[in-house]
Amino acid sequence: MTGADRQRLRQVRAAILGNRPDNSMSSALYPLYVAVIAAGTYGIPASQQLFRSLDKRWVAEHVGTPAGAVVAVTLAASLLTLVLLVGRFHGPVVPPLPYLEMVVTSPIPRKVTLARHWWLSLGGASIGGLLAGAVCGAGLAIAGVAEPIVLFPATLSGALFGVLVAEIWLQGQLHGQFQAPMLASRRGSSVLSRRRNALARLDITGLRRQAASNVTIGGAALAGDIRTIRLDAARPTTHARHVRLRPSSPLVVIARRDLLGLRRAPGSALYGLVFAALGSAGLMLSLQSPRTPTMAPLVSLVIAHLGFGAWCEGLRLHADNSGTSRLLGLPYRDTALAHLAVPVSAWTLTTLVVGAGLWLTGLVDPASLVWALGTGALLAGTHLMAAFRGLPPAGVFGPHAGVPAMIFWYAKPLLATLVVGTATAAWAARSASPWNAFSWLLILTCGVVAWGLGLVGKRDRRS
Amino acid sequence: MLGRRGTTAPAEPPVSEPAKHVLRALGAGKKIDEAVLLLPTDVDVGEGECVVLRGPNGSGKTTLLRILAGTVPPSEGEATLDGSPIDERDDLTRTAIAALIGAPATYRDLTLVDHLVLIESTWGNVGEPADDRANEILELLEIDHLAERFPHELSSGQQQLFHLSMVLVRPSSILILDEPEQRLDTDKRDLLTRILLDRKADGSSMLIACHDPAMTEALADTVVDILLA
């Protein structure tokens, strides 16, 4: 970057600001201020409460072992993979569209015009990591799980992990663009030179696409329209176009449609399989001992909910289509139920395979397997709720409601999974026979499914 | 006939023996609070008849089509199919009426031919006939070369032809179409006119909102002018 470039960019910023004062620094510092307050007020109490709720002996038995290290590394690698994928759709360098059209397309070097946005993202990620590390460290120290000195390595590790997240995020953005990274080959191909030229390698088409998507998703988020966010973030399907849907009876063809949809989105199918396998395994294992922390079934259910959801795209697309001209010869509700056939079958099959493996190795008993199979019905009900919940009611946008009300409204299906699943699983793990708790799981699942069907009926009447 | 390309044999008419139905709006109007979407209007669509609605933008043509497709109830007057109130949730209504009012539901992970097979199958047409019908309709609309494309890979005119194919492939005796000519070039408008004339000759009734004078001239038995509210 030359002095002339910096001078030109200063002039551009002055032209953009006009007579208004430059308050970009305070705009950047305000979220930091809010994050520090939130970390202190909510983060540390929640963290120490979480560590207090864990059985210290159980933690000691698992955390210090190689298996614990493998779990930690796997979690970190999964998070970084997720960040890489997110970067393909929404990277760390996404200036507003007018800035892109008028400044980034100018002859000023791209690494100059985009530097400010990159440093903001890098700063945000590293400070976010630092705060997360500090919250975890403080929680461990206050709960007495570790010595207070743990605060320093935890904070430092968090900050370094934040920097790594920002770098991976940028690499994700680079991989998501259409143009080949030609500048890298021109200026050397070492990792260091590629890293140095990362901003210069961002092409205008990819930046425009992400900026436009930013506007759409931002507007949809303000309006609570999660459907628009999902459809905007999804990549268009292009796989397996030569595979054709085979004609079948009305209900079977809906299930075949969903199978074909998963074949054309192999990432979703695989993600669903891995998460469903992990979730069902975690759930079955958590039922084996009364000493298992309540967190274990809770985390397992979150993972299972996500895995089952990856198989429910057909159901969500059916819900998305309400209000348009109907061309299918099946009633709306029957179509919705038919869309559950594939995810429920996939869950059942996955659970049977995982459960059989765990049973043969003596880690779980058959009752746990039956339990995990029953949880499939609960997941079907909560995903019916999720797909057909529609837009949030006007009250959620009221002056007395705010963001927590909207989050609660959206999280209701997940909360239903967690409340019903965790409460009954904790009861089953702590009682001599799990069957009373299992009966309640089935009864509550019926209620959840009825709730979901009620929402289907409501969308049917409105469309 | 019907603008098919090449020398292959002409397609069979999509619907051979449509059931006979009478669609009627009697003083049907729509008001939401103080906003008048449609002034009270009379429309009568008899067996094998084509009624074309005309009128300026905002006069309520689409609202009237929605009322007669049973997706919106009138706030005054009545809309009936064979003398009974029209409701899209009623199986008999859905069986009789195929409507294209706005973009229909599509699945982003299905190709064009998959959509048609899905629709055919849900109407009980299974096995090879469903495949054949899907291919016939695509050929009829001259979009058979797009059979394995996904909806997001189509131009706006191709999208319109695809949406028309989804309505034409399903069995029905009454077609309700809202500006079917939109985004189509002159050749495709002529092609569509010929297809609709064939459907009419086979006994289908039609209610169409249309701004194309040539299509209106060719298709309409009756023209209803909707007044601006």
Please give a structural write-up:
The complex is a heterodimer of chains A (463) and B (229). With 463 residues, chain A is mostly helical. Chain A has helices spanning 3-17, 24-53, 56-63, 66-89, 97-104, 110-113, 115-142, 151-175, 182-186, 191-196, 204-223, 226-233, 250-264, 266-286, 295-310, 313-320, 332-338, 341-360, 366-387, 402-430, 435-462. The longest helix of chain A is centred in the N-terminal third of the chain and has 30 residues, at 24-53. Residues 182-188 of chain A have low confidence and may be disordered. Chain B is α/β, with parallel strands linked by helices and 229 residues long. The longest helix of chain B is centred in the last third of the chain and has 16 residues, at 186-201. Helices cover 33% and strands 23% of the residues of chain B. In chain B, helix 3 crosses helix 4 (128-140) and helix 4 (128-140) crosses helix 5 (156-169). Chain B has seven helices and nine strands, in the order E-E-E-H-E-E-H-E-H-H-H-E-H-E-H-E. In chain B, the strands form two sheets. Chain B has a five-stranded parallel sheet with strand order 6-7-8-3-9, sandwiched between helices. The chains are: A mainly alpha (463), B alpha/beta (229). At the A-B interface, helix 13 and helix 16 of A face helix 2, strand 6, helix 3 and helix 4 of B.
